[in-house]
Request: fold
Amino acid sequence: MNCLEFRRQIGAEPSASGAGIEAHRAECPVCARYQDELRAMDALIGRALAVDAARIRKPDTAIAPTEITARRPRWLALAASIVIGISVGLALWLSAPRPSLAREVIGHVAHEPDAMSGTAPITQATLAGVLDPEGTRLRPGLGDVTFAMRCVFEGHVVPHLVVRTARGPVTVLLLRHRSVSERVQVSEQGYTGIVLPAPRGSIAIVGRDLKDLDGIAQQVFEAVDWGN
Amino acid sequence: MNGDERGTDRRRRFATLCETLRPDLLRFAFWLGRDRQLAEDVVQEALLRAWKSFDALTEAGKAKSWLLTIVRREFARSFERKRLEVTDLDALVAAEADVLAAEDDAGLTEMREALFRLDDEYREPLVLQVMMGYSTKEIADQMGLQQGAVLTRLFRARARLRQELGITVEPSS
Reply:
């Protein structure tokens, strides 16, 4: 790979890597610096593109299939916008900034309240059907798994479990696609969620009215075998 | 499963999809149109269309790109329906400041202004790559372009940004 080829490729994909790229980096410090500059610029582009979707979105217009059969009259939308604007402003004023991942986890759990209500353990085969594609396993002793499903979360299919631990039921999402650098916690809609860095991505544990969610989260974390 | 149960299941699956993907769709639509109201309208319409053709989505793993395609088409339709107002690009960053999530600093503001000024044909693949994490192949599929054309656009997008920000286009020696 010569300098021109390197710059063409890196100019379009600064994060690109591979034997050819690494070899050229090693022999051409100018091109290596060029790639470093572009990577730094991409980090800035990423920060500049960050959009808080919650501030675009009007909470009460969240699409529900039963509600999208007809358009609302324009004046109604306008009136609703004013009310929503005031509500959103008030909500923003009242609420401190919260980690969006934990919020989206709670949003997902709150959307499926029935998942928490089951008490009968599911079969090992069902659990395996949900965890096997991930190469993940749940070590015995944590408690009965009463719900297991592969759900779409942030565009990825992730295992969604409900485990009835000795200290209460919790929802567990295994988020291989999403890395976090530190523990994140948020309480919302009556739920408390904790997201922990995991060997593969992260793990979210959500509970309701539980006294020691931290302890339960740690117990769940230790019970997950992430495989290779 | 009877008809009612199938309908309930369909609604439930679609609602889950909306709940999880709507933030990304709004972000994408915002950077397509650089206008939060337009983004909200486009995503609303796109989800309406998605609901009508939900049965066409056979693989859950492809839901995001399927919905992004619908958003792109709906965005194009919004241009057909009405002539959009001429936008004062210099005022855009200030007008949309509270939507832009990262904390402000001079370099960031400059970059946002440059991104707002970037031509649509360059901004869109860059958004898909940097914000959505798409590969150039996925961007090509999404935009209906050859992969080579996507690479060219991404190269030019960064070159223009460097130019706008006063960074030499050629690598520094």
Summary: The domain at 1-85 of chain B is CATH 1.10.1740.10 (Rna Polymerase Sigma Factor; Chain: A). The two ends of chain B are 68 Å apart (CA to CA). Chain B has eight helices and no strands. Chain B has a mean pLDDT of 81.
